[in-house]
Amino acid sequence: MQFLSQLKEEGGIWYSPGTDVISYPEEGNSLCYQLEDKSYWFAHRNSCLSYLIKKYSNEGIFADVGGGNGFVSAMLQKNGHKVVLVEPGETGCLNAKKRGIENVVCARLEDIDWAEGELQNVGAFDVVEHIEDHEGFLNTIHAALAENGKLFITVPSFQYLWSKEDVDAGHYRRYTKQSMAELLSKTGFELIYDNYLFKSLHFPIYLMRTIPSKLGLRKNSPENSANEHGTEGGLMIRFINKMLKKELANVKSGKKYSLGSSLVVVAVKR
């Protein structure tokens, strides 16, 4: 991995000297680390990504950009991919090492002078919405990817689902299939797959997050996050898991959804 020559290794983590502030709450990785292993949301996203990455990815390095605590990287590493987690938050990097991620880089993607075509695959999983200049971010990914390199993205969907949750998380926007397709086209990518995920959560989010946020009634807390991610289980969580199991089967069978609280896309560098 040629890019490592620019970085300094300390405690098993590679550091870049030029990492700047990101639009993500400082405590975000710590909170997510407490939720991820017990959350139906993170589990379902990983299941869908595992299938899509196995189907569409190239051989070679897979850079998990903005990979946080390494929850996706751990799945990819377990599945035999050569993973490099690139994460600007040191807390996330330390947690990723605890998870056993072999290659952890504490940096933003743009802090590294990538050799042209050094990466065969890039994933940005719930990252792009945190980037104000999302077009510039995808241009940076495009330059680092090899010809016909693959890009995998998940983002929150539908701007009308905007809530205090988005504000507190440091989001700039939510996306639709059309807006993401236009962004990819502008930045030199060809869309090869898109779909909405978490259809069963679409209207509950509008009712329980969006409307209360508009009325000034929505308050977020670690306890609320734990409850919404179903870390304690319960009848409602069992029902949601049943719906998500069906959704995963439908994704694998090729079904496309017109609604959902998340959008997943796969694109190829052109």
Automatic annotation (TrEMBL):
Transmembrane segments: none annotated. It comes from the Bacteria. This is Methyltransferase type 11 domain-containing protein. InterPro entries: SAM-dependent_MTases_sf. Pfam families: Methyltransf_23.
